[in-house]
């Protein structure tokens, strides 16, 4: 193939990746810079009684652009009053906000049919007027990303994808009540705010920094959701059913998140090889929610091709020998 095939036309220059916006790198209070997005619809019922029909409900997700903490609200319908009520609940629990970021309404044009209702809400005069009045009251600046540019809102788009994708998988055809859905969403919020961001220190017993540190000044330790067998998760045992949904979500989302720490651009080259002293998350099956097993690599075992595929890891409970594919290095800062 000739070299001219790879030439970049002057009229179509290759786009360069820009620096992160100031809202992502400057020190600020949690949720000072907040992105907001919707997910749904999901089927719920207000009460579990005979004759009551299901109805649509939506997830309103608020993401802190600085700390990556999330806040989830459940909107019973897609109306201006419902969104403003969710926004007021968010402000009341998370404190004042200075900047709000959201998709431009035209992003929904040409999307799936179920997003048409969201588009109509965002471009309606009633919504724009009421939303502007609310922003003025709290002295909040609202910034919208350019039309048809979802990558500008990558932080909240990725969180919306995680919540919606795995929630659809674990709920399936189940129809939860409003209270049950709210209970599950609050626990999912807790799970996602427990994810490791980086190391707090490189001590012999390392600790990790999570979004929960910015919200509560302490890590989340335990989530009361017991492991249940399939025959226990019946429609008549609602508590067992909800615990099963949360545990299932934890397993799916946790594995997805761990894989993001082992991204390789090419299989033919070694990317971020582990070495002695590296702090890693250890993949273990069937661990309870909010547990992120940590260890420090003590020794590595190169193969005949001098590629490291096995390592000895020191943990709080002893030493473990694990394949490198089950170890996820954490960034130092």
From TrEMBL:
It holds the Pfam family DUF5641. One of its GO terms (biological process) is DNA integration. GO terms for molecular function: nucleic acid binding. SUPFAM superfamilies: Ribonuclease H-like. It comes from the Eukaryota. InterPro entries: DUF5641, Integrase_cat-core, RNaseH-like_sf, RNaseH_sf. Transmembrane segments: none annotated. Residues 17-219 form the Integrase catalytic domain. This is Integrase catalytic domain-containing protein. It comes from Bombyx mori (Silk moth).
